[in-house]
Every structure is written in structure tokens, then in C-alpha cells.
Amino acid sequence: MAKPAIIMKRLAFWLNQPVTVLGAAGVALALGASGWPAVQSLRPIGDLYVSLLQMVVLPFLLATIPLAMRSALAGATNATLIRSLLVWIGAAIVTVAAVGALVPLIAFHFLPFDQATIEAMGSIVGGSSGQADLEFSLDNNALTLLGAAGQTGVLSLVPSNIFSALSADDTMRVLVFAAIFGTAMTICERRSGRSFFGALQSLHDTCLLIFQWLNLLAPIGIIALIAPQMEVLGPRVYIVLAHFSYIFFGLSAVILILAITILAAVLRQDVPLTFARFSRPLMIAAATRNTLACIPISVETMTEELHASQETTELYIPVSFATLRFGTMLHFVVATLFVGALLRHSFSVSEVLTAAVLSVIASFATLGISGAAALAPLSGVLRPLGLPYELAFPLLVIIDPLVHMVRIMLNVTVNCMIAALAGGTQDRELAQSAELQAAE
Amino acid sequence: MSPRYRRYVAISFLPALCVAVLSAFPFASFAEDGSNATYDLPAIKSAGILRVAITHFDIPPFHQRRPDGNFIGKDIEFTKELGDALKVKIALVDSSPTFDAVVQTVAKGHADIGISKLSQTYDRLAYVRFSEPYVTLRHALLYNRRVISGLSNGGSPDIALRQFAGKIGVIGESAYVDFATADYPKATVVPFRTWEATIDALKTGQVDVVYRDEFEVRSVLTHDPAMHVLFGAAIMADRRSFLAAAICDTCVKLEEFINYFIAQHPRAYSLDELLTISYLN
Fold this sequence. Notes:
heterodimer; A: about 450 residues; mainly alpha; 19 helices; B: about 280 residues; alpha/beta; five-stranded mixed β-sheet; 12 strands
């Protein structure tokens, strides 16, 4: 009787090992690069895995956010914590935007585009039959951007109907509701002594258990989600967009490594071990291409494995994952300088600053949208600089499946780093709590 | 009448005589049978030849001269089939150096019809008749991306394209001179001898926009994809070129015949089909 249980336990142990997760990513890349058409048949499995993860995200947010709000409002350190979070968020935004602007500016100067690359890019823009960029009417203001997604921005994040927001899987609105609800429930609890925070804690633990089960399927999910994406892209895309790819992926790798190293140092963890433990949220980020789906595993990794402050992590990670898109900031600023270099545009200092600032602002305009539509706010960065979005979109959209993976990985890692920098370790949290109790 | 006076009379009548002789050519068949009817289908059928004016330069895939001297292309197929329907032979008159010259060739009676990817325009209708359109193409612009993005003030490029007041390149003596002048009254319309020269002017910055139809614009980008990086293409959804045969001004019956022929042989060329033919040849 005990034998199957032991086997299951060992299997679970191995499936959760970083080497298994990274191995799955390696298999996915190899399958994708093979160009084997049967790889596409893995898509339904990947979609099923994403659905399973997303299924638990909303209940998890509804439980975690009110609990985190209660914890934050109860703690005497909350003002210091929020100040600290704001400082680190500001520092991270400035660093990402500055690095994203300066490195490509120098790199594109020394990496001019050859004629063959420009020709290949022109073919991508117009397809094989020289498709037009846009259609417009001379006599009225009708405009159709051919192939480009429509504009979307930060629009009413407050849900008028929470049940409608829940049924529409509108995570941003649910998050806003959960934060307001958590605050109100904490105040009610103080006044009347009654609340159902106990029930929410139980819901939170239940969701985490389901995520632990789903983590066992992570290697299969990673293969089934990454391989078809890679197979669709094909090697030609990387050759054509080599300039952009080298710089964006290179910069992303540097930021990821730096962020995890800082995280390890702040949490006083062994650096290689932190990399290994952090590989699971990173691979889930790459596979699902959904920052919100990474919330539970990131919270679990940060609190259970890396021993980051529970209060800070549980408050900051859900909110920041939904709002702060460091990957998008970097993507937009690199893309702007790439399009400028392609058109032989010489950027002035003020234009580089404008590109960086507008990229940060435009990243907030991608909230609540995903896929190719998330590229639409890039027009708000390019056009004020006199650069054509119609040229950028067809070029960037073909490489977006891969860039999207990296964007989500950056969102997850940089936000986890900020949580660690602001909140510190659980030991520090316990010490502060003890000091507070002693003072009382 | 004195000899001197007779000489004056003779000199006075000489130009009129010349005009009468020149203009008699297309109406020769009527003069022979003594009919008062104007030149039209019966005369063409009786001559057994339909004279078709085309441009001297190639317009692939509409018409193109092969190395052996024969012509190929969609317009050539059209005229051959029309000739079969009329039961007459086709004589191509390929001396016109411009599109307007094709119309003038027909207007002056040196050809019965003109069929060289001709667009109907108000000016041309003053000289010739036009058949029903056999192909309709939307107008299109090829523009310098940086210039137009700069003029759009942070908006989409259609804003600058709609109100463009810079230099627009077109083929001289083509319908697009008229279209550009009408659609862009504030712009300076710069005519060039050929389409290739117009595109070169765009590349070298002599003009910021060139104006023609969707087929030609896309054809340029298909043949030279590198251009699509620096230059954008915009389709004007509410401006169309109706490609039709120019028909001699007196040829009412011929026009009826050609319209009936077009209705019987619908030529719904798809743009992609035209582009494919274009670069296969």
C-alpha cells in the first residue's frame, strides 16, 4: 500500500527539481527548432495547462489580496514598507529605462543594417505581395491599420460589477475590488471583531495546494507551450531581426541575472541555489506568457523556498505583477531605438529621454491586454518621435511570441527583486514584529 | 479673276484642303459608299481592322513587347478577344509616348480604340468615349515614412496624408496628374516622364509622396522589398481608377459592342493575380 505513495512522493520531488524544469525548457526549444509539424499537436495540452493555472488565479487573488491588505494595515511598519517599495520601484524603473535606452543607442551605432537585412525586413513588412501599411479615406477620418491591432489604454479599472469582472476573467478589476474589499473588511473586523479572514486563509491555502499539484505538470506544460511557439517562428526571423534580438535578449539576460543575484544577496541565499529555485517561476512565466498566472508560484518560491518577508511578498507581488511591466518598458524603449536606427534617425539626448519616459508610460497602457494587442501602445512612443508604428508593428509582431516570454520573465524577476529589497527576509520581519510587540 | 487673285484664293483654301484630306482617312469607307453616317462600327467591320492604340512603353502585365516583337498581356488578350467577337483583325498602334497621347491618338482618329491601362478622367471624356470599366483599382500613395510621421504631429500617418501640402510625384501626361491636382489642391504636383523616374524621385527626396494605383504601388514594393522599410504604402479607400477602353468619339455602336463584350467576358482580375503575372514576366 505504501509503495505507490512513496513512488508518487519521489516523482513529485523530481518533477519539482529545477533541473527537471530547465530540462523541459531545453526539450521544448529543441522540439521547436526541429521544425517538426507534429509539434503543433502539443498546443491543446499547453492550452489545458494554462487553463488549469488560470482557473485558480482569481480565487487565489480574492483570498490573498484581502489577507495582504489586512496584514499591511495591521503592521506598524506599513508606512516605512510602502516608502521603501516606492523607492525601489522608482529605482528599478529608472534603471530599466536608462539601460534600455543607452545600450541600444550605442549598439545600433556600431551595428549598421546591411542591404540584405533591410530587404528581408521590407519583405516582412509587405509580405510577398507588397501589402500596403494602411487604408484611409480622403473625404473622412476613417483609418484602418492593416494587420495592426487597435489602440487600448488604461481604461476604467474599477469594476462596476464584480461578478461580471469575475466571469469575464478581468483580473485587473478583480484586483482593484479585492484591495478595496480587504481594506474595508480589516476596518470592519477592528470595529465589530467579526470577519471571514479565517475562511479566506483556508481558501488561500487550498489554492496553494492546487498550485502545488499543478506544479507537477509544469515540465509537460512547459514543453507543450514553448515548443509550438518556437516551431512557428522559424530560424529566418532571428536572422532578419538579429539587431533587435541580440540587444533585447542580451539586455534581458543581464537584467535577469542581476535581479536574481541581488535577490539572493538580499535574502542571504546561495546564488546558484537561488537561480535553481527561481527557475520554476521563470519557466512558468515563459510557458504561460501570463504574469498573473505566475503569482502563486512566485509567492510560494519567495516565501517558502527563499524565505522572503511574507507580508511584503503577499501584498506586493499580486499588485505589482498586475501593474508594473518592466519587460514591456524595456521592450518598448529598445523597439523605438531599433526603428529609429532602421530609418537612420539620429536621436538627440532629449529624444532618448523622451523615448525612455514614454516607454514607461506606455507600459501602463498595456494593462489588461495581452498578445499582439499589447504592442498597440508602442505607437504612443514612436509617433511623438516622428517614427512610424506601421513599420514597427509587422516587424515586432512576428518575433513577439518569444519576446512576450522574456517580457513576462522580466516582470516576474524584477518585481520579486523589489519585494526582496523592500521587505527583506522573514527573519527581519520576525525581528521587527518582536520589536513592535515589545514596544506595545 | 486675275492670276494674282486666283493665287490668293488657292492659298486661302490650302489649309482647309489639308484638313479635309487628313480627316478623310478614318472616314474613307463612308466616302466610298457615299453614306452620310459618321464613323462607327459598320465602317470598322467593313475595313476588317480594329486599330488599337497602346503606349510605346510596356505596362506589364497589361501589355508588354516580347523580344520577338509580339505583344503579350491582359490588354492584348482583351483586344484579341474583342477582335474575334467583332470578326476583324487587330492592328496595334504603339507610337504613343504617354497615356494622354493614347487618348489623343484615338481622339485624332489615328486609332479606333485605346487600351493601355487607361483611367477615365473628366478631361479625357471631352475627347473620347469610354467603355464600362474592365478593371477597377483603388488609388494609392507611396510615401517617405520619416517625412509623413514628422508631419503627423504624433498622430497616425493618415492625418498628414489627408492634408499633404508638399511635393507629390506622378507620371506626366497621365490621369494621375488630374487626380493629384484635384485631391491635393495645396500640394505641388511634380510630373515625371516615367514611373521609374517618379520612384527615383521619391528615393532621392525630390518628392515625399508618389501617387498612382494600388497595383503599381504594391508592384514596386514586391520588386524592391527593401523600399518598404523607408517608404510606406497607403491605399485611398474612396478614390478609384476605372480602367476602360478609350473609344473614338463618334463610335456609339462600337461603344455598345464593347460594353456588351465586357459584360459577356467579365474581367474581375484580382490584384494578387495581376501582381503574380507582373513578376513572372
